[in-house]
Amino acid sequence: MKTYSFRHIKNIAVVLFVMATLLFFWRMERQTQIRRRIANTCFRQQHYYNLLVGNDTVCPFPYLTDAMRFVSDDSLRIDSLVRMYGEQQSELNYYLSVHNVQDEGYNMIADYATMIDTKADSTRRLLHYTIKIDSGEKHQLVHEAKYYSCRPHRVRTDMKGDSAGVYIGEMDSLRRADGHGVYKAYDGSYYQGEWKEGRRHGFGFAIGPWKRLRVGEWSEDSYLGERVHYTSNRIYGIDISRYQHEQGKKKYAINWGQMRITHLGSMSRKQITGTVDYPVSFVYIKSTEGATIRNKYFNSDYVKARRRGIRVGAYHFFSVRSSGVAQANYFIKNTRFNRGDFPPVLDVEPSAKQIREMGGTSVMFARIRSWMSIVEKHTGVRPILYVSQAFVNRYLSEAPDIKKNYRIWIARYGEYKPDIRLAIWQLSPDGRVSGIHGAVDINVFNGYGDLYDEFLQNALIP
After folding, report:
1. Under a CB-based contact definition with an 8 Å cutoff, are residues 184 and 170 in contact?
2. Residue 367, class by beta-carbon neighbours within 10 Å (0-12 exposed, 13-18 middle, 19+ buried)?
3. Does 235 lie in the same domain as 208?
4. Partners of 285 in the beta sheet?
5. pLDDT at position 129 over 70
6. Could you give the number of structural domains in the chain?
7. 407 Cβ partners below 8 Å, 6+ apart?
8. What pTM was computed for the model?
9. Second label for 372, Cα 20 to 30 Å away, from 141, 194, 249, 309?
């Protein structure tokens, strides 16, 4: 049996000690590098956090706890996080594209969008770093995340938390949210705006994981909608049919040279700045209905509108009594299409009874798809779908491809903007236009001049 001298044992012990020391310092350096990466990732978020909640909180890693929670939970994957942030960024970018600084809350939402962009980017990088860490180091980082998580030292407004999240903002004497404030739920939901007696009340916006952005007026925690501010900076249009020429036995001509919008209708309250005296920027003219009805005034109205420099589009009224193919062919046969015209429109307004009688929603959407496809192939541009808000609420979710691939024109006559992404909003059926006898449908383009110019460049008949 081989024996070792004291000198050998001592040398082995020294070597083991040196190796253990090196390993210890290597792990310490490794964790320091990881913490430095996390710090660098989260540092820039502090600026946006302070801008958003308006306080002087000492909070070096405001989103670190959330990010590390995702890292430590094996049921959540980076692709899910990326999709979640992508949905929120899409909602926010859409809102910013169709609004500008004239709209209430625009700057508040723009700041939040910037913060979400930063948070999404930093979380992606943070996850990229941490998915390579072994379980022991990950446990240590989660522990440190709790230690370094946001600890307020001085705030200008009050703060309180409950089982669902944290509120930062103004409060009444009973410590209920009252005035302006921010509520961030632990599930990622977010609200910023006005409060009254502990409930969302007044102007504000809310967004959350896999939830649409809701901007506008709230009442006792219920979302009412976005109220549009009407000014001369918006782009207005009208839609007409034979009813603007015939009322009873009387017939009326349209004076295209006098055409100005003078009234936005009386069916709902409207926020209007200045006098309503707006130019008609576009006009949609009914051409056909079903596979047998034709508007005899279409051609003359079309020619006269174009002669006056007004953008023109044609629409077809959908019938439940004939196929989509037959209706598309009839529309094409009886309608003028020229370069620079607005996209053709399919006007879909069936009742629930009519939908049942034609075979249900699957049959209806199949006919709509046929019409849209044939007309798009003929004109070279995707048509627009005209529906009511009630149709959107009841049926459109059954055709996600149509909702995703086609622009929507909504008829909604209440005081709030339609709760969907849309191209044009028909805001009233009882407006007034000089040069036209009787009531006229008034429409507004969903966006301002820059977006309208983009629409004119990319969406018209080539």
Report:
1. no
2. buried
3. no
4. 240, 314
5. no
6. 2
7. 343, 382, 384, 385, 422, 423, 424, 459
8. 0.75
9. 309
How many whole angstroms separate alpha carbon 225 and alpha carbon 217?
6
Q: What is the largest CA-CA distance in the chain?
A: 125
Distances (CA, A) of 178 to 173, 217, 311: 9, 15, 48
Q: Are residues 357 and 421 in the same domain?
A: yes
**327 shares a domain with 377:** yes
Q: Is 283 part of a structural domain of the chain?
A: yes
Does 285 have pLDDT greater than 50?
yes
The CATH number of the domain where 293 resides is what?
3.20.20.80
Has residue 60 been placed in a domain? no
Report how far residue 251's alpha carbon sits from residue 259's, in angstroms, rounded to the nearest whole number: 18
φ, ψ at 180 (rounded to 5°): -90, 135
Cβ atoms of residues 316 and 288 within 8 Å: yes
**pLDDT at site 58:** 34
Structural domain boundaries enclosing 413:
229-458
Same domain, 372 and 247: yes
Is 275 domain-assigned?
yes
What Rg, from alpha-carbon coordinates, does the chain have? 30
Question: In terms of Cα–Cα distance, which of 41, 46, 91 is closest to 71?
Answer: 41
Helix (H, G, I), strand (E, B) or coil at 263: strand
Cα angle 239-99-120, degrees, rounded to a multiple of 5: 135
pLDDT for residue 131 is more than 70: no
Asked if residue 235 and residue 221 are part of one domain, the reply reads no
- Report helix angle 45-53 to 106-130, nearest 10: 150
- Closest alpha carbon to 245 in 11, 6, 440, 462: 440
Residue pLDDT, tens place only, 426-446: 999 999 999 999 999 999 999
b/e per residue 93-105 (b: at least 16 CB within 10 A) = eebeebbeeebbb
CA dist., res. 212 & res. 192, Å (int): 15
Residue 431's alpha-carbon distances to 268, 362, 428, in angstroms, are 11, 35, 6
Among 175, 193, 226, identify where a domain stops: 226
Positions of E strands within 131-210: 158-161, 165-171, 177-185, 190-196, 199-208
- Rounded CA-CA distance 115/297 in Å is 53
Joined tokens for residue 316: 């077809």
Q: What is the DSSP letter of 417?
A: -
CA separation (Å) from 304 to 259, 285, 338, 366?
A: 12, 12, 14, 36
Residue (of 211, 183, 212) closest to 195 by Cα position: 183
288 and 236 within one domain: yes
Task: Give the domain-ending residue among 185, 208, 226.
Answer: 226
Distance of CA 89 to the CA centre of its chain: 9
